[in-house]
What does this fold into?
Amino acid sequence: MEKLLKSNSAAKSTAFIVVFLLLGSLSVAITTPFKQVVYAHTFTGDESASFLSVIRILQAEGNLVQTNLASNLSLAQEHGKAVMGIVNANHTFGILPNEVSENNKRVASDIVSAANALQTAVKSNPAPIQADIKAKIDNLNATLQEAIAIRIPKDHVSNSTINGGATKNLVNETLRQYGYAFGISGSNGGNASNINNSTSANLGALPRGNTVVNMSAYQSAQALASQAQRMLTETKALLPTNVTSTTTLTITRIGNDLSQLKNTIDTKSPYGNVASLVQKTIYPDLNAAFGLK
It folds into this structure.
């Protein structure tokens, strides 16, 4: 009987220890926060091209704030407003600060702060000081370069096809802004992606637009045409060593195409003429040289 009591006592002690350990484990599971690892999505080539082109567009608009400051404050303010609009817009890859935040929240916050600071400064009363605006533009540009470094894969930054796609995006935006400059928008107006899907026959029906009615958009078109030229020059340096002579000749032709685009914009050529140049000449050459769609 005594042995039986001892056996029961031992069993109870063992059961108590097991229950205690289980409760302890459950307590840890309840009180320890559940941590889920969140990974930023990896950009496709098209998304990287879009991101790179948006950075160039922001740089162009920022520079236009500076160039207009002394001669036309209202235009400088329009371009400052455009910077903020581009930062907050939903692009092909998403909203710029949100995408950067996936990799670095501080840089994402800095982009918004820099854009806000520029817009606020150019709207200040009394009129802003040139040196102050330049400092804010320099800060914005430096932050945008940092965003590229932390958001775009290095092999995308150095990829000629992706940079060729970014060049095409800049041509798209150039044409869109040129349409706005002439008061043209909509499915057959400033939307270059729709024009890109048009047939050659349809181009004859495009609005011809002979008078600039939006100087801010016109300046943006000029600046973006220059950005497209600059990006093509940089992209040529990224071409693989085994590039064919046909591709080299096509890229040389694109350089001439973009020079013609800049000239037609500088001389305020009718919108339909510029749209035709982009559709019939520039897009096909870019597609052929970089394997774009």
